[in-house]
Structures are given as structure tokens and as C-alpha cells.
Amino acid sequence: MINRVVLVGRLTKDPELRYTPSGVPMARFTIAVNRTFTGQSGEREADFIGCIAWRKQAENLANFMKKGSLIGVEGRIQTGSFEGQDGKRVYTTDVIADAVQFLEPRGNREGDGQATQTPGEQYTQQYQQTQQHGQQTQQQQPAQNQSNQSYTRVEQDPFANSKGPIEVSEDDLPF
Fold this sequence. Notes:
By secondary structure, the protein is of the alpha+beta class. It contains 3 helices and 6 strands; from the N terminus they run ββββαββαα. It has helices spanning about 55-65, 120-140, 145; strands at about 5-10, 15-20, 25-40, 45-55, 70-85, 90-100.
């Protein structure tokens, strides 16, 4: 049997950190996950999914994430029930988070006192920083070390000197 869930969404409110009677940290939070299609009104709808994180992960969520933060959650669905205040049985469904990823840099969230950036702006800034770092690294490295990089850049067509089409038989194919 398989019970795996992977979600990416935004926190609908600050995580609620609590401790069990034995002192184990537990955080309850809800994430809004956009649906891949639009509703009849033409607007994108979202699902609001309740999640629970335990131990250090719960403390990290409560300390570093807040309403609106973009996070990724990997976990499993767990159902349960309890007797409500009115005496009726209440059924619950939660995602128990095995792993939580913070998907935004700290300075990009609203309310941190810094300007927020769109994902496109984030990508552009990260790309420019990477390019600048790469140029600095290439300038600092001697020519002999540049050939030890983990990628190969091909300036010319490697098949330019071949004489005719390349023959491939069915026995050469991996499928």
C-alpha cells in the first residue's frame, strides 16, 4: 500500500506550535494549494489542507514561517476521530509532514521589512548572481583547472566531419 502526499502551497496563517504533555513539539498549519484549473467563474480555486509537523520540524516552522510563506510538504494522510463538545463524533483528515521545505528566501516574504519579489524577479536575480560568481571563478582559476569542470561545452558540431547518415539498428536501442 502507498500513502504519500506531496504538496506545494502557502500558509493560510502562522503555524500553531504546541507541546505534548511529554514535551514533544507539534505544529498545526494549513496550506492553500492552487488547483490546476479554473472554476466556472474563471477564477483559480484552491484547496485548504490541514497538516501536522512534529519535533524539530515543528519548531522550525513556527520560528521561521508565517502566513503567506511558500512551503513544500511531503508526508502521508492520516484520518482520525474524536468526540466533539456536543457529543457527536468528529472525523479528521490531516497530512502528517515527514519533510517540510521552505521554498522562499527569508527576505522575500511580505512583512519582513524588505520588498517582495515575484518568482520571475527572483529567478533573474539568482541567475545574475550565478553568472557573476561564474565569471569571477573563471578569472581566478588557471587555464589547466578549467578542464576539470563537471560539464563540457561544445562549440562546434561533433558530427560535422561524419560521412553520411549515422546507422542505428534496433539492437542498439535500449528499449
